[in-house]
């Protein structure tokens, strides 16, 4: 287990969501507002459902931070579910179950059926409450916290939506500062205003048909030093760790690094990033087809991770299913849901990637305090400079 690790707990309609993060060095300045800003970004995006109108997520720090600085001890975070008051009888830890509100009709594409069989539950609410992407609230909170450590070393993260349904961005990606500004102002979290209008029109069309939409997004990490990750064992390869962490986001069906699938269509001479050297820059690449990772390690270029998310499983015109109790054909359960979550997924993945980068960063440079970590980092950068 990495020195930096966390656990989350909580159900979608339970009292609250909780996370405990261990392994953060002491002395890191943490702004509560920065965590809440990321939580707000997660809740945005054109195509979101009614739940986002109920919740206004704010983090509560209950341990591990004092006077705005980490102590080196476990950090506990909580986010209240405001909708809990409407679900108390159904989600009480010690109340009595109600057969009238039990969920017996699994949704195609959701964890309902497989989870019910695995954990021996016939009331599938026992599955869907934790399988819900509401759980990602705490993963965003964790990512928002650790990226404040990464920013000390000028490591920055960006994301944008490349496509929703069959509508894709039409223009090349702008410089990252402009990208961030455009994406954060866009209802669909993209930089291409013409594509954004088409994406929103498509979402409106699909909403009328009571269906759902997926799409593709990209996360970019800049400022990463050479040598995060390792080639020596499979579990240390950073591209594999990033793929696993992004794939762990609900409904993700594909993850690419750099050119990804396109790399399989190119000749080697058109794929691999040629190596150059100058006294001012050291070793560098003029292209970044590898997405900042070679041999499972960072190569000094920005990390580029792309992912595809399927349409949400809950449909307001539900698909055919089978009642798990009676075994009779039925229509799947309808839960309050979104039409499109691609913009939100991009923000969530941005923070999930931040955590994975923080893990390997601390593994390489180490240190129980920020001062010690800075010293190790500085010494390592000197070695790289004189390689």
Q: Could you name the CATH homologous superfamily?
A: Chorismate synthase AroC
Shape: globular
CATH architecture heading = 4-Layer Sandwich
CATH classification class: Alpha Beta
Helix-strand category: alpha+beta
> Roughly how many Å apart are the termini?
31 Å
Structure description:
The chain is of the alpha+beta class and 387 residues long. The chain has one domain (5-385): Chorismate synthase, AroC fold. Helices cover 34% and strands 20% of the residues. It has twelve helices and 17 strands. It has helices at residues 32-43, 51-54, 88-91, 112-119, 125-131, 136-150, 176-185, 193-208, 238-247, 268-271, 342-365, 370-385, and strands spanning 5-9, 16-22, 59-63, 65-66, 69-70, 75-80, 156-164, 167-168, 215-222, 252-257, 275-278, 282-285, 293-294, 297-298, 303-309, 320-322, 329-331. The strands form six sheets. A five-stranded antiparallel beta sheet has the order 8-7-9-15-10. Strands 1-2-6-3 form a four-stranded antiparallel beta sheet, with helices on one face. The longest helix is centred in the last third of the chain and has 24 residues, at 342-365. The radius of gyration is 22 Å and the shape is globular.
